[in-house]
Amino acid sequence: MQGAQRGTRSWVSRITPWAESGAKPLSHPGCHESCFCQWWQSLHRTMLRGVLGKTFRLVGYTIQYGCIAHCAFEYVGGVVMCSGPSMEPTIQNSDIVFAENLSRHFYGIQRGDIVIAKSPSDPKSNICKRVIGLEGDKILTSSPSDFFKSHNYVPTGHVWLEGDNLQNSTDSRYYGPIPYGLIRGRIFFKIWPLSDFGFLRDSPNGHRFSDD
Amino acid sequence: MAQSQGWVRRYAKAFCKGFFVAVPVAVTFLDRVACVARVEGASMQPSLNPGGSQSSDVVLLNHWKVRNFEVQRGDIVSLVSPKNPEQKIIKRVIALEGDIVKTMGHKNRYVKVPRGHIWVEGDHHGHSFDSNSFGPVSLGLLHAHATHILWPPERWQKLESVLPPERLPVQREEE
């Protein structure tokens, strides 16, 4: 790769050597520089090499940046927009927050963390709730007005999630504890609206569990 | 001296360029397209690991097929264990959402699989930690679809999606 080719990335050029290299003219014995030969040569040199080379380069860059984006979202974190009223007043509808995925991979999710998880009844949608109990915890499941208190123990490998807006939240009180493997990341910082910029507050509902 | 330094710098630059291209692409491929894994345990005998501890099968796990969480009854799938998130288990899909299964060893005799869940079982009944122990599993825990056995070479085969006839669901969800 010399001359004009020095700026290109070497691995892209290796895929399309015939397009990038200075190919020898397509002539055959008996061709006397006829009109067709000339037309074919100019087509090959300008259009095919230019367009095809550019297409391959574009595809290559798209794949590369797509892979970097996947690695960033999967292993580090990303920006998420939350919708729904189930985490008010901590997170309002259409707030933009920053979620990190390192805690999930190192199994560092604590009680009181706000997490994003895959919904147990619809794997393609995400839910955003607070962790109330980890495995082994005893959760109070009866409402405060009940006379007889009922408790549930969170099974191994599961977590108990509840939204901060207890009246308007479909959470573990409805579908039970969810497996830890469904958790995608931990939300710890709010970006938008700017009036609420900063780290997220503790639960407004106090403690509804007792450690065992 | 200036020449040797230029040589080192050029190599370092090429290495960094290659590294930042190759590593994300490889990681994305292994996470999203396909990877290989060794099967341990006897819960899927005789389909997988018929030799027990002498030889473990190595299977090809296809992530691309389950990117939309579409599985069929009889598929062999790998999923995150609901009891231990650090471990992945490999089992056969017996029933999809809406089916009613007759369980073997579960606390309820008949279970209707809820929406967004599947019922998985190992082929070696009685030696398998599966839905008969922990109930239906959420589709969000689905990891990959095991399509082929790659090693040992005498066991090269495509894994078929067949349901054992005695494990057909009692009632299927009508499409």
UniProtKB/TrEMBL annotation, chain A:
Keyword Protease in record: yes
Key words of the record: Hydrolase, Membrane, Mitochondrion, Mitochondrion inner membrane, Protease
Principal subcellular localisation of the protein: mitochondrion
Biological-process GO terms, alphabetical: proteolysis
EC number(s) given by UniProt: 3.4.21.-
Enzyme class: hydrolase
Keyword Membrane attached: yes
Entry GO MF terms: peptidase activity
Pfam families registered for this protein in UniProt: Peptidase_S26
Subcellular locations according to the entry: Mitochondrion inner membrane
InterPro entries on file: LexA/Signal_pep-like_sf, Mito_IMP1_subunit, Pept_S26A_signal_pept_1, Peptidase_S26
Domain Peptidase S26 span(s) in chain numbering: 63-139, 148-192
PANTHER family assigned: MITOCHONDRIAL INNER MEMBRANE PROTEASE SUBUNIT 1, PROTEASE FAMILY S26 MITOCHONDRIAL INNER MEMBRANE PROTEASE-RELATED
Family, per entry: Belongs to the peptidase S26 family. IMP1 subfamily.
Functional note: Catalyzes the removal of transit peptides required for the targeting of proteins from the mitochondrial matrix, across the inner membrane, into the inter-membrane space. Known to process the nuclear encoded protein DIABLO.
Subunit structure: Heterodimer of 2 subunits, IMMPL1 and IMMPL2.
Protein name: Mitochondrial inner membrane protease subunit
Organism encoding this protein: Vulpes vulpes (Red fox)
Automatic annotation (TrEMBL), chain B:
Superkingdom assignment: Eukaryota
A single MF term (Gene Ontology): serine-type endopeptidase activity
SUPFAM superfamilies for the chain: LexA/Signal peptidase
Subcellular location: Mitochondrion inner membrane
Classification via InterPro entries: IMP2, LexA/Signal_pep-like_sf, Pept_S26A_signal_pept_1, Pept_S26A_signal_pept_1_CS, Peptidase_S26
UniProt KW keywords: Hydrolase, Membrane, Mitochondrion, Mitochondrion inner membrane, Protease, Transmembrane, Transmembrane helix
Gene3D superfamilies: Umud Fragment, subunit A (2.10.109.10)
Every Peptidase S26 domain range: 15-104
GO cellular component: mitochondrial inner membrane peptidase complex
EC number: 3.4.21.-
Membrane-related topology note: Single-pass membrane protein
Quaternary structure annotation from Swiss-Prot or TrEMBL: Heterodimer of 2 subunits, IMMPL1 and IMMPL2.
Family named by the database record: Belongs to the peptidase S26 family. IMP2 subfamily.
Chain's role: Catalyzes the removal of transit peptides required for the targeting of proteins from the mitochondrial matrix, across the inner membrane, into the inter-membrane space. Known to process the nuclear encoded protein DIABLO.
Protein name per the record: Mitochondrial inner membrane protease subunit
